[in-house]
Amino acid sequence: MDRPAPRIHRPPRVGLLRIALLIACPLLVALNFLHHRSTELGDPLGVHVDTGLVLAAIALKWFVLVGSVMVLRSWLEAIQGRPKQATFEVLAMGLPLVLLTLVLAVTRVHWAYRLSNGSEKYHSFVSADDTFAVQDANYSRVSWLWQHGVTQIAESLLVFLVISALAMLGVFLGRRAWWFPVVALPGILGVYSLLFGLFVIDFDVFHGDIWSGAVLLDLLCPPYVEPYSLIASLYYATFAASLAWVTICRGRLRSAQIEGAPGAIDS
Predict the structure, then answer these.
(1) Transmembrane stretches, by residue range (predicted)?
(2) What is the DSSP letter of 182?
(3) How far apart are CA 124 and CA 111, in angstroms?
(4) Neighbouring residues of 153: CB distance < 8 A, sequence distance ≥ 6
């Protein structure tokens, strides 16, 4: 009796888009940091170089956003009818974003003033160093929220609220829920901002938030807006890289399960 032909092991197929996202995400953040540093130093390499950094950052931003939506569609299809898988992958994507939020919270004193400019003011919440406190009528309230940890918790929970809502739609609707981040995300951030009032638009824009206001305002101004595009790029890149990695790992696991199915003979 002839023996079955030996199984040939092939590396799991990984979408080129996912690999491209993993490469583009750190590049997007790097370009934004370089632009910001160039602006701080007065464009030492010339305005044309700085303009090139901005244009490259805009192109990468939209590649990451559009690419994320495309990968998101396959993820939503994969979790349809699978709530346990969705829960695990929500944690896998949400925890890096929460960690980023907490890092920004801990280091706020170091970046808040540097990211402020002629019209956008980030509070450092260190009264001796917060030069914008006396200008913001909302300062005493947002300062209290920050000092008591309310803002840090709210900004972290918001991450899981957005991803969990997306996953829930994916479980019930699958690929058809791809429109959620495109249409609903600005609305969710807008409602959240109105409820908590962590940033106010007066004669200037005063910020007591960590990321919600930056991402909202960056989405409302598609090309580029200082300093929000820098903060937003950190979240775009972290989400896109986490999403790409989760889908890559799921594809590898599925390939391993197929190869290890009963009746398969390994070489």
Answers:
(1) 16-34, 54-76, 88-111, 153-173, 178-201, 228-248
(2) H
(3) 8
(4) none
- How confident is the model over 180-186, as a mean pLDDT? 83
Helix intervals (H) in the chain: 16-40, 47-79, 83-106, 108-115, 139-147, 150-173, 179-196, 212-220, 228-259
pTM of the full predicted structure?
Answer: 0.88
208, 116 Cβ separation under 8 angstroms: no
Per-residue burial over 35-51, b if 16 or more Cβ lie within 10 Å, else e, is bbebeeeeeeeeeeebe
Q: Tokens representing 77? A: 């299809």
Q: Tokens at residue 108, please?
A: 């706020």
pLDDT of 57-70, one tens digit each?
999 999 999 999 99
pLDDT attached to residue 11? 42
Asked whether the beta carbons of 22 and 245 are under 8 A apart, the reply is yes
